[in-house]
């Protein structure tokens, strides 16, 4: 009996191996798949779209879930793609559809895969860095805000903590799972490809008009339309939820391209990167986001300070002269005129309104050391506590929002976190010896710096994919130094026997 069971088990195993290898005959495949096809057809005939969706989930969803857990780099790539395109795809579905749970689900899967791997490869050295300690402190403070007595609603905290704090756990996933130079290159290529697709979408919206579903999205919310329609022109968002996210992502993509040009890559790749930079800046203008216009010169200034050499100095000086000419040149072009006002804040009515709002909220901030509660301002404040004082306050600035929701204690903690991240990145840049990894680290420092500058006039770190890219950049600061140390240790170990001889 046992022999018969073993024989049966071996036969089944052999059958599946032949099926996967494609060694079954055509007749055998037809006989095998015909009942499956009939079953699917009957299910869709009786169950309609619900049955079709369920079958699709089984066929595609289950393998995808397993792949995200088992292959973390694939999971991170899927996470980035979904973060870029989820808002764009959500324009096809009813406005109240909770599409955000898709990103939450991927986050949980990546965390689950990390925990499984960490169980068998428990190496705490990956996380023994200043950034990790401060991220944990910031996470703890965010969870402490759940019991803030001033908080108008615990539901506002629940909805806000997902994108403000919970997404920070991805920093630890990135630090632990990214273990090779090749993986960094793959993620950079994917990052730039997604940014390029977004830029093409923005270019299409400005120069060829909106697709019907895009026009529906723009006009279905009067409040959104009033925000996006300024001086007779519709601000473009491309595939993103708002023009701020669009413009900031174009700037960081251009910064990444600039830094990669200084690495040892083929000439045609440098040409392509060089052509992508002005294209990213061009579509950035279509967003009409003044806060983004000051970011390129800020990035160039930081680049010149960190890597002072003739080649980079020439690039910075040339760019500075072009920027100066662009700021002061007389023009009737609406995009250039709006760009110029970013460097003349006294002439910018919206800047003056923000300044007044910040002055008005200062007494509240000073009298509430732990703030009014996470989620008390913005969309969740209006939804869960519409009659509260903070629900009607437009925070605009990411730093102001932290001060209002989490108090001046939270603002000090958040500012300390940003300082530690930048200080660690700058220190690591000078510690890294490998030129390629050194430039990767510099690119991440500049991107983090850009996001921090942009977080003052706007909220730069709360929307997808900006929040994911920010913590990916933070993780790569430590990953690049770790890889550099590992490669130097390997070289030293290889050279040791030769020296002994």
TrEMBL record:
Which regions span the lipid bilayer? 27-49, 56-89, 101-118, 130-148, 154-174, 186-203, 246-265, 272-292, 312-329, 364-382, 402-425, 437-456, 462-481
Origin, by domain of life?
Bacteria
Domain O-antigen ligase-related residues, every copy: 279-414
Entry keyword set: Ligase, Membrane, Transmembrane, Transmembrane helix
List, alphabetically, the Pfam families matched: Wzy_C
The answer, when asked if Cell cycle is one of the entry's keywords, is no
Among the GO molecular function terms of this UniProt record, one is: ligase activity
Specify the protein's topology with respect to the membrane. Answer: Multi-pass membrane protein
What is the official name of this protein in its record? O-antigen ligase family protein
Q: Which organism is it from?
A: Mucilaginibacter litoreus
